[in-house]
Amino acid sequence: YSTTTLSNGDAVSCAMTSIGTCATPFIDTSNAIIMIVQPKLAPSVTISADAGPSLFPNEPINFTATATDAGSAPKYQWKRNGANVGGATGSVWGANANFLSDGDEICVVVTSDYACPEPDTALSNCIKLEIRVSVDELGINGGMTLYPNPNKGTFTLEGKLLVGNRVNLEIVNAIGQIVFRENLDSTNGVVTKEITISNAVVGVYLLKINSEGRTETIRFTIYK
User: What pTM did the predictor assign?
Assistant: First the structure.
């Protein structure tokens, strides 16, 4: 039988006819097997990112793929401008802005492991990246500064907000881990905060400053 000739719930059995001269009964019918015909499913996949699509130099970014109707253990292949990224075969792929280029388009292809896929692969949406060449002024503050830079894990953030009176601070290390997070209320729009990163290690960090839905990023270095 082919699944094209069967329907879900069909009962399939076998009738055996004896060639013996004294068989009783002459014909015997087997037990019936109730068929379950799985539907054909077309996989789909979408991707999202935890940063960008506008990135500063050395800023980390993680892309996450979410597959639908692709079975329990689908396979992934991440693509950069249509070309396979070597070794990027998981549902999550992380990169650094220094590895990427301005205008790169990141997508993923999912291969379904479902029993009856049609087709068996699908291409996701693509995220186009912008790599900035410097720290941009995004209209959040009137000269927010971080000093000293470089530092040994303790520094001061100072400046005046142009939008809102509350600022959310987040510091991210080179591999995308958040090492500091705090919400601050300004005094008449002025922010002054001394920050210490516990157990700071040498490297490049990004301080993300968010106010009223706008984000500015300041890059700084910790040394010993």
Answer: 0.51
Can you tell me whether residue 121 is helix, strand or coil? strand
- Three-state SS for 83-109 is EECCCCCCCEEEEECCCCCCCCEEEEE
Strand partners, 187: 190
Ranges of residues in the chain whose predicted pLDDT is under 70: 1-9, 20-21, 23-26, 35, 37, 57, 133-143, 162-164
ω into 39 cis (within 30 of 0): no
Comparing CA positions, the residue from 129, 62, 141 lying closest to residue 101 is 129
Q: Please state, as a whole number, how many other Cβ atoms lie within 10 Å of the Cβ of residue 55.
A: 24
What tokens does 112 get?
Answer: 């379904």
Tell whether omega for the bond before 117 is within 30 degrees of 0, i.e. cis: no
Q: What span, in angstroms and rounded, lies between the C-alpha atoms of 16 and 123?
A: 50
- Name which of 209, 213, 159, 156 is nearest 188 in CA terms: 159
Predicted local confidence at residue 133, as pLDDT: 53
Which residue is it, tokens 């490297």? 203
